[in-house]
Amino acid sequence: MRYKVTLEYDGTRFEGWQSQPSGKGVQDIVERALAAFNPETPRTIVAGRTDAGVHALGQVIHVDIAREIAPIKLCDAINAHLRKYPIIALAAEVVDEHFSARISAKKRHYRYVVLNRRMPPALLVNRVWHVPHRLNLAAMQEGAALLVGPHDFTSFRSSVCQAKNPVRTLQAFTVTQHDVQIWFECAARAFLHHQVRNMVGTLIEIGRGKRKAADIPSIITARDRSAAGLTAPPGGLYFVSVDY
Amino acid sequence: MRYKVTLEYDGTRFEGWQSQPSGKGVQDIVERALAAFNPETPRTIVAGRTDAGVHALGQVIHVDIAREIAPIKLCDAINAHLRKYPIIALAAEVVDEHFSARISAKKRHYRYVVLNRRMPPALLVNRVWHVPHRLNLAAMQEGAALLVGPHDFTSFRSSVCQAKNPVRTLQAFTVTQHDVQIWFECAARAFLHHQVRNMVGTLIEIGRGKRKAADIPSIITARDRSAAGLTAPPGGLYFVSVDY
């Protein structure tokens, strides 16, 4: 039986989603929880391989389990074994054998949260990027809009990104103010490695007046990582949800 | 010079605001930070003495400091000494000698956050009360409205509450849904010990159908702690702000 499972996690103390020799990938912990009530250790396939420190509100995996188990019982069993960790199975459902959490994904949604005030956070440590500078919201919105569409995002991908094709279609990218927070929300079928964090880092430079929104097209056409801005830190990034 | 200072803190690992023999009160940490750049150890006066585990988004204190210092420098100096702790001085201002963070307060605002979904939190551990049961929002709103006004809140105060007069005037009490969170927001010039947590605990019992909103008047007139509901846990409570 193939199960689709939705997960929430605090990525702060993990070395990212992917299984690590240290055993400190979120995947390692989740697979150990699955193994605890299933004879064979099942491997999971994930929708979005989050980096170290990145959080998930609605990460999706699929896993094949020999035993038939009611989806809600599967969640409860996983959660019972995850009690020591800030990882929760929110929901599960039986899916057909052709479903893949990775390949079947039609749209992935990310949110990046900036705390924009002079003082650092006490309650949101490791959950936001603290940017104390005055930011021009309209300029960041203009820059975000110029990133929407099909583009070669070479300038916005990590130097270690292994994707053969650097073209991605950014379907939406909004920038909104929520009291002292600024939310950067974007959606695409797929993203390149560090793409969201590099886009946000560049938009913050635009917000600070170090670059202009109108520079975005030339940054894209440069196809050069050094043409874009810094990589925003991981703690502000949330993998929100996946559309199938 | 008298300074008014606004603080944000994560109350999880502290034994409440008040100074403790253990040195683990928020007050102990803040006063040590103040003492680090001020010759005498100044005592602080606080607007709301939060309990262990209760958070603050805008706690207010006043403190007398012999040295004259620009308010923003005072914040930076406090924060430099608080770096190890989840406590931040958000703002400061010079106030006249008659100002008291406690006595001058005209209205105190609290928020209580319930996470209302089947699964416990991964990201909001110690920041919300997880209530997995189905809740009747309209009934809780009706119950909250019946608590507004001047009442003898004996049924809603802790047995160790030392206030001579149990009458308080609750000026507002709203219950609103925010996705899977329910926010209970109330304001009054002053509250009794555990009053907000006991009111929220009672409203949750109403939301679960264990009590009726219409029972609120008789709970109030009982003037008996055992007539009201359980005490909501501290992690969901936020001291939001004070009006002067």
Short synopsis of the structure:
Helices cover 21% and strands 30% of the residues of chain A. By secondary structure, the first copy, chain A, is an alpha+beta fold. The A-B interface holds A 8-10, 55, 57, 75, 79, 86-91, 117, 119-123, 125, 127 and B 8-10, 55, 57, 75, 79, 86-91, 117, 119-123, 125, 127.
Q: How would you characterize the overall build of this protein?
A:
- 2 copies of one chain form a homodimer.
- The first copy, chain A, is of the alpha+beta class and 244 residues long.
- Chain A has 5 helices and 10 strands; from the N terminus they run E-H-E-E-H-E-E-E-H-E-E-E-H-H-E.
- Chain A has helices at residues 26-35, 71-81, 137-147, 195-207, 216-222, and strands spanning 2-9, 44-46, 55-64, 87-95, 107-115, 129-130, 149-152, 167-178, 181-188, 237-243.
- In chain A, strand 8 (167-178) and strand 9 (181-188) form a beta hairpin.
- Chain A is globular and about 55 Å long.
- The two termini of chain A are 19 Å apart.
- Chains A and B meet through strand 4 of A and strand 4 of B.
Largest interface: A-B, 21 and 21 residues
Count of distinct strands of chain A: 10
Parts with pLDDT < 50 across at least 5 consecutive residues of chain A: none
The assigned structural class of chain A equals alpha+beta
Quaternary organisation of the protein chains = homodimer
- End-to-end separation of chain A in angstroms reads 19 Å
The average pLDDT of chain A is: 96
Largest sheet of chain A: 10 strands, mixed
Give the DSSP E fraction of chain A (strand runs of 2 or more residues): 25-35%
Shape of chain A: globular
Percent in helix of chain A:
10-25%
